[in-house]
Structure formats: C-alpha cells, structure tokens
Amino acid sequence: MNFPAELKYTKSHEWIAFDGDTACIGITDYAQEELGDLVFANLPQAGDEVFAGEAFADVESVKAVSDIYSPVTGTVLEINEELLDHPELINEAPYDAWFVKVEGVSAQEDLLDADEYAAFVEEEKAKE
Amino acid sequence: MEKKTPLYDTHVKYGGKIVPFGGFLLPVQYSSVIEEHKAVREKAGLFDVSHMGEITLKGPDSLKFLNHLLTNDYTSLKPGSARYSPMANENGGTVDDLIVYMRGENDYFIVVNAANKDKDYQWMLDHVSGDCELKDVSDSYAQIALQGPLAYSIMLKLVPEECLPQKNYTAIFDVDIKGICSIISRTGYTGEDGFEIYYPAEKAAELWELVMDAGKEFGLIPCGLGARDTLRLEAAMPLYGHELTDELSPVEACLTRFVKLDKDEFIGKEAIIARGEPKEIRVGLQVTGRGIVREHMDIYADGRKIGHTTSGTMCPYVGKAVAMAMVEKEYSELGTKVTVDVRGRSVECEVVKLPFYKRQK
C-alpha cells in the first residue's frame, strides 16, 4: 500500500497537500481499498465553507455510502469535477483523484506524516 | 456470535472480505463487487449460500400441511420440481418467502432465508398438524450457487448431462458429483441461468474446489454477498426485509401470482382478502438526476410523500442507479417523474419497467 511521503494524513483516512494557505484533499489508498468500487462522489460547491473534522463530501460504493471529513477549515476554491462522472478514478489513483482545493485555511486537525499514518493503518488492519 | 459456514476457511483462502450477515460470517466480496457481478452476467460466478436454512418435511399429511402453511398451491407439484411461495401469518403479513422441492411422495425439502430460519422453523412447528414430521437439517448441508451463462458447461465437466436438471425450478436428487452425494437444482437468485447445489457440510471445501477447477477455463470466479445483492436487485427479485416484511401481505408486495386465493384455506387467506386492493404498488425507479438511491428513502411527487424505496444501488451491468419502491398506484405509470429524498438532497427519478435486467434466452 502506497502512502506518499510528501502528503499529510488523518485518522479518518484523508490525505492533504498544502501549498501556502491552500490545501488539496483526497482519500488514501487504504480508504479506497476498504470502500471498494466507488460509483458515486457527492462533492461540495466552490465557495462552500468546510470545517476541520466535519464531513464535506460523501462517496458511495455499490454497497454503502461513506462520509469524507475535512482535515481543515476553509473555503472551497475548486472541486474536481472529473470525479462526478468518473468516481472510479478514486480507486484507480487515489492520490491523483483530489476531491477539493480549500483556500484560507484557518484551522486543521491533528495530522500524521506518512510513517505515522502507515503505522496507524497497520493497527486498523490488526483490528479486523 | 455469528456462525461460520462450512466454507469459511475457503473464503479466507480465496481472499474474501468477511462480514457478518444473517447470523453468519460471509464474504461480501473477493475481488470487486462490479467485477463479480459482471462475471455472473457474462461468464460464471460461484457463491457460498450455506447460510440458507434447509428443513425436511415427511409423512402422509405433508401435502395437506404445505397447502395450509403456504400461499402457493402445491397440489400439482411433481417429484423433482420446486415451487416458490410466500408464507403468510394470520394477519396476512409475510413470515418469509421460501422454495419447496418435492423429493418424492410425502417427502419435501424446504429452503428458507438464513436470517429467518429459526423463526420459520418455529412457525412451522407451531402450525404443523396431521401425520407429518419437520426437521431442521440446515447444519448438515453446505450450499453453493453456480450462476452465469457458462454454468451449464462447467457442470458438464463434473457430471454427465442426464445428471443436470434441464428445466428451471427442477432438481435432481442424490447425484454423485465425484463421490459427493448432492442435490442439483436449476435455480438461483441472480436473474441468470445456473445451479444451486446442496451437499454434505463436511464435503463443503472439496466440492467448492472441484467446481472452481472445472470453471477455470470458463473464467469462473468466486463471488460474495455484494454481487449477490446487486444481481438480485438488477433482476428485481424480492428480498425479505426489503420488498417483503412482516407487515406487508404477499399481495401488497406484488407476489399475487404466488397467492392462490382459490385454495380452500391457508394461513392468512381471510386477512389477505379482507385487506382488499393494495393502495401502493411495487415499481422500478431509475435515477435521472445525480446520485444513488438506497432502501428506506421517501419518494415525493406533487409536493407530497407518495411512497418509499425498498432496495436501491448502482447496478453494475445495466450501469445505472436504480431502486425498487412502493408508490401510490396513481404514480406507478412508466415514465412518471418523482423525486427521492437522499439524505436531505432531492434526487430526480423516473418510474421504469421491472426487471431492470432480463436474460436473453
């Protein structure tokens, strides 16, 4: 399983990449594998506010719907429209399939680096 | 505590993702629900359905009891044939739906839903009369379902043609499949051609492996509960707890053709008649807006609630988000536009024909 070193991670399995006070958010390789084939992504709209630790989007597999949580507080600058028509991209390339870009980041969750997140995933797997 | 089916270790070996279902630990998927679903539509898939309950009924009054217990009529059932029926309660609600095989004179084999097995068996024991005997034999049977257009060719590698039932809803008992004494039934829950095989639990893994080996060249893959649900939904087959409930009568659930009101009597007959013409009807919905509709969501038209969904998902083969729903009759016409409340979001849908998928014969 792949957890790129340049990204930060949450315990709810989102990844985040910062560029100044703008953040790009998606879900991890572990998350997409656990969710299975994704068939729908429900994203916020540009201009919406998102809040650290609160759901900002949901994705649906054939079997179930799952909330996606924002690691940061800020305003949605842009959404990845491609995911609306091709949610399978999240399964195929989870780190290219960003959900939203958020600007004006004012607060954030406790974030993990790649090694910490990899260790956390191992713990989660051990619970299964 | 969930039970393991006799194929549990096999699922783990094949990489199945195990979840609790109907009191059992079963694989929801092996590779991917979509891939498994498509394999059944285009080639073949193998399912463990050992969680289903099996009950035998024997004795001279068996037929009389079946006709009392069930809404369908078993009088004309012949040895080697199977017949589906709802089982109603005194209020007309549905206890379960099941399949009865006739093995021979005064000798029946009843297959019920896993989650309802104990309830069903108790219900039968509470209502049994006359000279016949019921026995819950669920734990001694493994059951696998081989489903898909290539299922027949795969079975031919294991047994000669005369051991394969040729018609839907027929079965051959005591078939020797490489030394394993089995019941081979031409039935399934996928809308596709295929077989369900009942055989001794202690041989569970052995027959599974034999079928997997025989199917290798045909592209057979193991399939989980996820695909089982999307396949049955695409084929618009009812599932207890969704399309059928304790409250809903089989007539209200649109299973009228399995309710023989011309029989002298059966449990629930008077109540079903007294309930009269149903006000709601089962329809298919296709999402025309954006999103996926699931079970138990409210349906709106003309500014008011006119029904609710009973099952819904993205159907992998037809490639559309669809749902089965109960709506007021005046909204049941094909093409009727409705909206469904999907977690607070209004999603546009249209009434379409059931089933969503029908096999080309």
Overview of this protein structure:
The complex is a heterodimer of chains A (128) and B (361). Helices cover 23% and strands 39% of the residues of chain A. The model of chain A has no long low-confidence stretch (mean pLDDT 95). Chain A has a six-stranded antiparallel beta sheet. In chain A, a hairpin with a 3-residue loop joins strand 6 (55-61) and strand 7 (65-69). With 128 residues, chain A is an alpha+beta fold. Chain A has one domain: OB fold (Dihydrolipoamide Acetyltransferase, E2P) (Beta Barrel). The two termini of chain A are 17 Å apart. The longest helix of chain A has 14 residues, at 114-127. With 361 residues, chain B is an alpha+beta fold. Among the domains of chain B are: 3-50 and 139-234, Gyrase A, domain 2 (2-Layer Sandwich), CATH 3.30.1360; 279-352, Beta Barrel (Elongation Factor Tu (Ef-tu), domain 3), CATH 2.40.30. Helix content of chain B is 19%, strand content 35%. Chain B has a six-stranded mixed beta sheet with strand order 11-12-13-10-4-14. Chain B has a six-stranded antiparallel β-barrel with strand order 15-18-17-16-19-20. In chain B, a hairpin with a 4-residue loop joins strand 17 (304-315) and strand 18 (320-328). Chain B is globular and about 65 Å long. Chain A binds chain B through residues 36-37, 39-40, 42, 58, 60-63, 65, 84, and chain B through 28-29, 32-35, 37, 226, 229-230, 290-292, 294, 313-314, 316, 321, 343, 345.
